[in-house]
Structure formats: structure tokens, C-alpha cells
Amino acid sequence: MPLLDRKGLKQNPFVRADVVDETAGPNVIVPWANVQDALAAKGKDQQIGVDLPNNVPYGEVLALADKLALVTIDFPAFTDGRAFTLARRLRNNGFQGVLRARGNLIADQFAYAFACGFDEVEPSEAVFARQPEEQWLAAARRITHTYQRNYGDVGNIMDQRRAARLAKEQADGK
Amino acid sequence: MYRYDQFDERFVRERVAQFRAQVKRRLDGSLSDDEFKPLRLMNGLYLQLHAYMLRIAVPYGTLASRQLRQLAVIADRYDRGYGHFTTRQNMQFNWIKLRDVPDIHSLLADVEMHCIQTSGNCIRNVTADHFAGVAADELEDPRPTAELIRQWSSLHPEFSFLPRKFKIAVTGAEHDRAAVKLHDIGLRILRHPDTHEIGYEVIVGGGLGRTPYVGKVVREFLPRRDLLAYLEAIVRVYNADGRRDNKFKARIKILVHEIGTEEFRRRVEEEFAQLDGPTINADPEEVARIAAYFAPPAYEKLPAKSNAYETHRATNPAFATWADANVFPHRVPGYAALTISLKAIGEAPGDITSGQMRLVADLAEKYSFDELRVTHLQNVVLAHVRQADLFAVWQKLCEADLATPNVGLVTDIIACPGLDYCALATARSIPIAQELSKRFADQERQKDIGPLGIKISGCINACGHHHIGNIGILGLEKNGVENYQITLGGDATENAAIGGHLGPGIDAKDVPDAIERLVDVYLAQREKGEVFIDTVRRIGVAPFKEAFVAKAPVKSKERENAVA
Fold first, then answer.
1. Which of A69, B227, B321, B462 could form a disulfide with A47 if both were Cys (CB 3.0 to 4.6 A apart)?
2. CA Rg, chain A, in Å?
3. What integer pLDDT is reported at residue A174 of this predicted model?
């Protein structure tokens, strides 16, 4: 599966496995159902990531957050927006690790994924065949500023208005 | 009214360019039809029975004259010379071509308009009381709140792929003209009983459709500053927990119903408590910046009553009849709000020609501070007309067939587009409205009957709001024949109620007789000064049911026999 971030295609250092042992490689993604076993079996040089469905209670993920190098959240269909909320809840509650959106999302959702706290996207091969890298990068830049505060690091309109207001007040000598 | 600043302008222009590119990517195969569908819906573009339909947002129903003129240009250039105002204060064009849509979006952006989120499973156009800033019972103009929500909900990164559509309405008045109890979220502006601080009553989970519910109060008082964080909490809980297994159970009303108001409130408050309000909510200065655009216009100081107006009323009965039905009192002395009925006898409710749009725009410019309103009853309001000018305005309206004196009366019918346009419809609605309007056309009789709301939907999705019509008509399809169910006792106001079924469905040709029999029960039973809905409440459904089935069962029996 291709892997993209804001800069474009990147190497995927992780491999997927159902169980973890020393042959599994240094960076392993396991299914959510197997995560406890994987963490128990993990060697000291191994990093564990987990594939989440989009309906896991976020508290259960947060409880393991320190031990996880990567969390991916599934988009079973691009019209199912639950992954956006799950990512947002993890970030709101202090999750600092790498968040990856995975599955059937489309290029037109790239910017939303970043805004909700994802770092990277792993779209399906089928979608990527029709929507290659340049479409994702173009889609991410299409809307340069949005209204919602506290969603991602793009300058949002509310904060820009505030900055303009403060600058004006300063100029007016208030 | 609100004007775009440089940020709003850039945002809408970028959105136009984005959709232009999406159309191109659909045509070159980058986007599949399934992928393109929600993208076009969130840009107002539906595929209807015969053609594409484009739904244009009229935020909280407020339009400037130049905006309505631009809609007239679009009607002439890209449609068939007319448009249709909807029950959500929007405008629809029913004969649009896909290739023209990016250019239409661009024309809209030229006048600070758009089609953003007029469809799709996202937060839709925010609606508000059409007498905002006019009504005497208003605590605060709801439009600044609605505008703030419009901005906050536009292209929301987290809430653009919700389980289902999401509608928000705001009122600032005691008498609810925005149907806030029948929306996914309804906000009622109120003062805290002790601190007198302004805030919101938050109502969640109302709605019509297949399973109508009156909304539940989730927060009795929400301080104004917390609005966006609280909305974020509600929509987040819905996005995470709302049902996605069945389209017909996916609205927030079903979630609230299934888990109960208490549990829903607990989840929302738990989410809200985690949020860092100051990083989400709008600054008070930003709220004030928006509110300033809705400051009252520069009214003249006038006597409370205009002699010219009174004289015209006394000497011209046709004018007096129109004024009685279509003029609404204004809180500023010497002014009035007038409703232009788009329910001419025998015409399609809410339709307006490009010529009529231009005339209305001219009247608004000359007589009403350049601003007009679209109502969820599919009419247009000139909100601030000097009483002394009413006669001149009426004369102009007469010339354009826009002076139908029936606002709030039995022929002021709401109807969805129905099977004449809509791919979802199971029956026609517009022809039913037309027949009823002809049946009750007599002006004296309408006046005698008084306020009575008839609402017609052409399918169970209830775009014509039949559940909340004093009389509701729902068109279904039964064995290949259109069949109409009649409900009684619905109410969209602060006394919100869902109408009850009167009996088995009836044929289209029998609808006018059936409705007439219901009206006759009211006329026979009413007490002095009692309006239709109050008589229904007092005497109950039974007498109406009796009159309704008086004739209908014979027919259904005949049909049963025929089938057997």
C-alpha cells in the first residue's frame, strides 16, 4: 500500500503481522485484537504499531498509548467519518505518537485527515491507481485557510482575524 | 446584513476552484461516480428525475437585492427562467447542466453566495426566524449566531462525513417561527433567569422524515461564549455513536431516542468537559464583529400609525384584504414587514420567475433597506417597509402577480417538489397543492377560515413537513396508484406537535373533498375567535376522523373487493 504525508510518497518502515516474534522485523503493525500479546512478546529493539477499526473506545487506545509507535485507523468506506473523530479524540487527550489514516479514503479528504490529527495516509491501491500522488498533494493545498480553530496547523481564519484586530489596535495606540 | 471579508472571499473562491477541479477529475475518471456523489452534494448538486438540480444556500434566509438579481441571471442563463424557494430558505434550480455548475458557483461567489453544504451528510444551511430584527417578541437577532455557525460548520474537517444530514435552526423570539424543536439542533436565545446573561437553550434530536420526533432539551442554559465548543461536543458524539447501519435510522434523533435523553446528555457533557473552550470558541470581539453587520438599519422617526396607509386601507378593499393577511407588525413605529406570497392560486408553491425576482429586488432596494428574507414557508419577506409605502409596494406586486393575499391562510400551502421533479418521491405534491388552492380560492372564505397550515410531502422523507402541518398530506404509492394519507393537529411553533393519522389513504382526486370536510368540522365547531389548530386541540381528533371517513371507506371497500 502506498504511504503519503504532506510532502508526498514515503517509505513505509512498518510491516504487518498477526503475531510478533524476533523474525517479524523491527517495526510491526498488528491487529487491535492482538495488541496485548504483541506488546508482551515485543523484543527490546522492536516497535509496535496497531491497526484500529474506527469504533474502538478511545480510552482503551490511550491506555496503551505510551507503548505504541504507530496507530492506524481504518476508513471502511470514505463516507464513514468516524476515523476523523477517533483521531481527534486521541489528539485531544494527549496522544503524541504517529497517527495514520488507512483504507478507503480519497484524495479529497487528505486535508481533513491532517486537520483532525493524522500525520500520514495509507490509501487503498485501487484508489491510488486512479488518484496518484500529485492529486493528493494538490487536494491538500486546495483550501488554504478554514474557519475551525484548533484543527491542524494551517492558519485558520478566526485566528487571522484576531491577529489583524490586535495589529490594528496596536497601530491605533490602544 | 453580513458582508464577506477578505478571508470569506478567498475561502469561497478556493471552494469554487476546488469543485471545478473535482468535476474535471470525475470526467477523466480519477473520481468514481460513488466518490464524486458526496462531493457534488456538498456543493449543492443533486441528480433528480429529469436533470441535475442545484440548491443554493441562502444563509438564514437573508438576501440582498443584488444577490436576488444574480439568481435571476442564473435562472435566465442556465435554467428555464425561474427558480424555487425551499422549506429550508434556500433556492433550487431544477434544470441545470453539470458542465455549467462551476460557472454558476463563480457567479454566486461574485455576490458573496455559495452552494456549500446545501446537501450531503454534513451540517446544512443554518436557518433562522424570518422576522429576525423585526418581531416585537424578540430578545436578540438570531442571525449573528446563525452566521457564526455557518462559518464554523463550513468544510468542517471532522464533520463532513456524518452518518446523515444535520440541520441547525436558531430563534431569538418567544414565538418560534424557526421550528427549533424540529431540527437536529435547535437553539433558542434566552436570558438566564438569575444572572440575566444571554445564552442558549439547546434542543437536540427533533426532526421529521420517517420517524418524526420533537426535540429534547439537552442544556437549559448554555453561556454564549461556549456555543462552538458545545456544538462540537454534540456533533462529535453523533459522529462517533450515530447509527451507520441503516440510512433511515442514522439521524441524531434516533440516537437520542435509542440511548435516551439522559445518556445522550451525559455523553455530550463528558465530551464538552474535555474540551479547551478558549481554543475552540470564537472571541467575543469576533462575535461582536459579526453582530455589527446585523445592526438595525437607519430607520426614520415616524408616527406609529401612517395616515396614508389607513386611508388606502379604508378606501381600497382589495388592498385592505392583502394588508390584513400579508402585513406583519414591526417593532419600530411607522414600519411594517410584508410577506410576498409565492402561493398564487393554482401555481407551484415557492416558484418565482426571473422577472419577479428582479421586481422584488427592486422593491427591496427602494423600500426595505436593500434586504429581503426567504421564509421556510416558501414566501419572501420585505422586512422594513414604511407603512406609508405599503400601498405603492402592493400596486407594484399586483402588476407582477405577486399580491396574493393568503399568508398563513389555507391556500398558503407548503409542498415539496414531489414526483414532478424528485427521484425519491412516491407521489406528486405540487398538483395536489394546486387543486387545493383552487378549491379554497375564494378570498372571503379563506379569510373566514383564518390561519390554517396545510403541508404536503410527496414521500415519507417529509421535505414538505407534512407532520407539522395543521393538516398534513403525505403522498405514497399503493399498487401503482398515488395514495394520500391525511394527518391532523401538527404544529411547527413553540407548541410543536406531530400530527396524527385520520384514516386510510385516499386517491388524489378525493383530497380536496376530504380537506373541505375537515374545514367544515372546524367551521361548525369553533368558538368565537378560535383558530383551526386550537379547535382541534379542544375538541380532539374524533369529530374530524368521523367526517374524514364519512366517504372514504366506501371507496376503499370497493377497491378491496376489486382486488379480491
1. A69
2. 19
3. 63
Q: Cβ separation of B154 and A147 shorter than 8 Å? A: yes
The SS3 assignment for B371 reads: strand
Rounded to the nearest angstrom, the minimum Cα separation between A115 and chain B is: 6
The class level of CATH for B307-399 reads: alpha beta
What is the percent of chain B with per-residue pLDDT over 70, rounded to a whole number?
Answer: 98
C-alpha to C-alpha distance for A106 and A78, rounded to whole angstroms:
7
Question: What superfamily in CATH does domain B414-563 come from?
Answer: Sulfite Reductase Hemoprotein, domain 1 (3.30.413.10)
> What average pLDDT does this structure show over B548-562?
53
Q: Are B363 and B378 in contact (CB under 8 A)?
A: no
Model confidence at B313: pLDDT above 50: yes
Distance CA B341, CA A149 (A): 41
Beta carbons of B30 and A82 less than 8 Å apart: no
Q: What's the pLDDT score for residue B88?
A: 84
CB of A100 closer than 8 Å to CB of A27: no
Express each pLDDT in A96-128 by its tens digit.
999 999 999 999 999 999 999 999 999 999 999
Give the minimum alpha-carbon distance from A171 to chain B in angstroms, rounded to a whole number. Answer: 17
C-alpha cell at B418: 414531489
Place B550 in a pLDDT band, splitting at 50, 70 and 90: confident
Confidence (pLDDT) at B93: 95
Contact call for B15 and A143, based on CB within 8 A: yes
Chain B residues with beta carbon closer than 8 angstroms to that of A157: 7-8, 11, 151
Same fold, B134-293 and B414-563: yes
Half-sphere exposure of B314 (CA within 13 A, CB side): 6
Q: Which of B12, B161, B241 to mutate to test the interface with A (most CBs of A within 10 A)?
A: B161
Please report which helix (H) or strand (E) contains residue B42, including its range: none
- The CATH class for the domain spanning B6-110 reads alpha beta
Residue B558 burial by Cβ neighbours in a 10 Å radius (0-12, 13-18, 19+): exposed
Smallest CA–CA distance, residue A47 to chain B, in Å, is 29
- Cβ contact (<8 Å) for A151 and B35? no
For every residue of A107-138, DSSP letters joined together read GGGHHHHHHTT--EEEE-HHHHHHS-HHHHHH
For cell 437536540, the residue is B204
Domain locations in chain B? 6-110, 134-293, 307-399, 414-563
Do A145 and B5 lie within an 8 Å CB cutoff?
no
Q: Does domain B134-293 have CATH number 3.30.413.10?
A: yes
B233-246 pLDDT, tens digit per residue, is 999 999 999 999 99
